Amino acid sequence: MDQAQSNIEVVEAALEAIQNGDLKGAMARFEEEIRWGVAEWLPQAGLHDGHDAVQQMLGAVRERFPGGYKLLGLTAYGTKDHVFVETTRAAGDHPHREGAEHVLLAFHVVMGKIRDVREFAYSIR
Fold first, then answer.
1. Structural domain boundaries, residue 17
2. What does the pLDDT look like over 75-110, one tens digit per residue?
3. Residue 99 is part of a domain; what is its CATH number?
4. Residue 93, number of CB atoms within 10 A of its CB
5. Could you write out the DSSP letters of every residue in the chain?
6. Global confidence as pTM
7. Which of 48, 78, 94, 107 has the fewest CB atoms below 10 angstroms from its CB?
8. How many domains does the chain divide into?
9. Bridge partner list, 72
């Protein structure tokens, strides 16, 4: 397996854990000094610095979707140190449902751990 594919697997495992509500499991995929920047159009906008801040932000995202959310149409592209993800975060199985967020995420992965995430909103319903 090459580095790009390995990085994609790290990111997909973290996103799956987040989607399933396993924030502790997801945080195991991140470096202690993780930084997650969220675009100003999204409710959790700003820079979330460190495990505690990122975990709190991810919990707040889950709270906006009673019953949880799904990552629909997830597409990931990897390089030796970055993974780019396009997906729609929505309650249920419909990407055009009210509250759905089409987002683009850029993950910086170093030695099997996610160091930095930048999240951009493409569209919000």
1. 3-124
2. 999 999 999 999 999 988 777 777 788 999 999 999
3. 3.10.450.50
4. 8
5. --HHHHHHHHHHHHHHHHHTT-HHHHHTTEEEEEEEEE-TTSTT-EEEESHHHHHHHHHHHHHTSTT--EEEEEEEEE-SSEEEEEEEEESSS-TTSTT-EEEEEEEEEETTEEEEEEEEEEEE-
6. 0.92
7. 94
8. 1
9. 88
